[in-house]
Design brief:
seven-stranded parallel beta sheet; 214 residues; 16% strand; two-stranded parallel ribbon
């Protein structure tokens, strides 16, 4: 039976976003997060060396974490990412052709959306989950309002989520969250404090696992 990554994401409720990380630091940072229980990691396509990193992590973390590509803007990028081994594709934009490409190959695509129209378009095109972006600018009241009529469509909130508001974000209706520098912390990577990075990751994993009420 084919693994449904969206179902897996809805259980783990969190994706770590690696953007612009130096290749020589990437592996140690990723291992720190996996050690902390992070199960989904995306490498953005505008990161130098993104494709080799994805390929490497597929092998290194096989059975421990799912590895995908982020900032996948079009089908050409989707093809490169899938060829490198990406298990899922995330974008800041909605491109129905990318969703169709993923569906043909059994790769889940979680497109970026902002408006109710884009959310429904993505859903109708076959996306099983959408990424609401930029969440930091839109705010939780926006999420709550659009969830009211669109509560059948799982939404991943990306941008502005931290330990202080993650519970409120889930309570507002997010099915999952995307976390960048709050989880892939540049300060800890620069200082080589991967033990603290693991502890920080574990705190987010625990917060994502906590039961929330809407």
């Amino acid at each position: 039976m084919e693994l449904d990554l969206t179902t897996e994401l809805l259980q783990h409720r969190m994706v770590a976003i690696f953007r612009g990380i130096a290749d020589h630091q990437a592996d140690a940072a990723a291992k720190a997060l996996v050690d902390g229980g992070v199960a989904f990691m995306e490498v953005t396509m505008n990161t130098t060396g993104a494709l080799p990193i994805i390929s490497r992590w597929r092998e290194s973390f096989d059975g421990q974490a799912y590895i995908g590509a982020g900032t996948v803007l079009n089908v050409a990028m989707a093809k490169e990412a899938v060829a490198a081994g990406a298990q899922f594709l995330i974008s800041p934009n909605l491109d129905e052709q990318v969703i169709a490409y993923g569906a043909e190959r059994g790769v889940d695509v979680w497109p970026g959306v902002m408006t109710p129209t884009e959310i429904v378009r993505a859903w109708n095109a076959g996306a099983k989950l959408v990424k609401l972006f930029p969440m930091a600018s839109l705010g939780l009241s926006y999420l709550r309002e659009i969830r009211a009529p669109l509560d059948h469509i799982p939404i991943m909130a990306t941008g502005g989520v931290d330990l202080g508001n993650i519970a409120d974000t889930f309570a507002a209706g997010a099915a999952a969250v995307g976390l960048g520098t709050k989880l892939v912390r540049p300060d800890l990577i620069a200082s080589g404090d991967f033990e603290q990075m693991t502890a920080n990751a574990r705190a987010y994993v625990d917060a994502a696992a906590a039961k929330t009420t809407r």
